[in-house]
Amino acid sequence: MKKISLLLIGVILFAFSFTSIAGGKYGLRGGYQLSNIYNGGNSLNKDPLNSFYVGMFTEQRIVPMLSFGSGSEYSQIGSMTDNNNKVVMHYLSIPTYLKFKIGPFFAIGGASASFKVYEQHFHTDAIQDPFEKAGWFDIPVYAGVGLQFLMIRIEARYNWGTFNLYDSPNDGYKNQYLQLGLAVAI
């Protein structure tokens, strides 16, 4: 599993460097994110975590209606039992995707190499060290739709984590999150 992870990281980094050198469109994106941790249909905590994401991207047209893109993104992912009890994980991601565009509408699908850089557990207004920390790496896959008018894009993407967050009794829990945002491409 470790070799597969390293291979995927290498492919994603190569793809990112290719699109950076090849030219094309560049942009910034950001918006609202709603996340939770699931094991099948069961969530770890009662409520989703309301948060944000922000990043930059580059796209290269392959054929008139199809583009390849990559970038970097920061997001906060987790879940809540109430306002005083929550899990928040901070991720840096390298998303790669294909975008199919017809007129002003587009569909997007891809995967991200996501690296956890920090994790917080809040319990009754205090920050505590978690008994069991989540893994440091995930590869969420995602699909979404959007609308583009001139340089402005409105996007909606849903992400499914593919790696288990925990190794022991909670095995099977994975991140899932919805991203609703704006992007500016030049």
| Name of the CATH first level | Mainly Beta
Q: How many separate domains?
A: 1
Uncertain residue ranges: none
Number of continuous helical runs: 1
- The chain-level structural class is mainly beta
Give me the CATH architecture, please: Beta Barrel
- CATH fold name, please? Porin
Shape type: elongated
* Estimated helix fraction: 10-25%
Number of β-strand runs: 11
Distance N terminus to C terminus? 38 Å
Could you spell the SSE succession in H and E letters? HEEEEEEEEEEE
What would the average pLDDT be, to the nearest integer? 84
Largest sheet strand order:
1-3-4-5-6-9-10-11
Q: Whole-number radius of gyration?
A: 17 Å
- Fraction of residues in β-strands: over 45%
Task: Sketch the major β-sheet.
Answer: 8 strands, antiparallel, barrel
Chain-wise SSE layout:
Blueprint: H1 2-22, E1 25-39, E2 42-43, E3 47-63, E4 66-82, E5 85-102, E6 105-123, E7 126-128, E8 137-138, E9 141-149, E10 152-160, E11 174-185
Antiparallel strand pairs: 1-2, 1-3, 1-11, 3-4, 4-5, 5-6, 6-7, 6-8, 6-9, 9-10, 10-11
What does this structure look like?
About 10% of the residues lie in helices and about 65% in strands. It is built from 1 helix and 11 strands; from the N terminus they run αβββββββββββ. The protein has one helix at about 1-20, and strands at about 25-40, 40-45, 45-65, 65-80, 85-100, 105-125, 125-130, 135-140, 140-150, 150-160, 175-185. A hairpin with a 2-residue loop joins strand 1 (about 25-40) and strand 2 (about 40-45). The model has no long low-confidence stretch (mean pLDDT about 85).
Q: Brief overview, please?
A:
With 186 residues, this protein is mainly beta.
